[in-house]
Amino acid sequence: MSNADLIKKAREGAGLSQHDLAAKTGLSQSSLSRIESGAREAQTPELALIAEATGRVISELTGRRSRTHEVKYAARSSNGADMQTMKDALDELVSLDLYLQNYAF
Hints:
The chain is an all-alpha fold. The chain is built from 7 helices and no strands. The longest helix has 21 residues.
């Protein structure tokens, strides 16, 4: 299942329309539509917002991918920054994911 499918499934499982999810996350409905259709990948901050709004953890929205996949998301969220900035972004992503796994309802 693709990330787009997993995100749509999480939204629907939470009983939310795209409009509702947009209101809860602050993302535009058109951005959510493009993410769910696979027209573009969700960025790490967007994944965090979607995960929180749907009661999921990031790894559930990404299919529990490998560390390589997490590094890819961290690199995208750092917008071409140096290695230390990418490492910090990855550490933050992993910490947030672990926190959500432990404390998400």
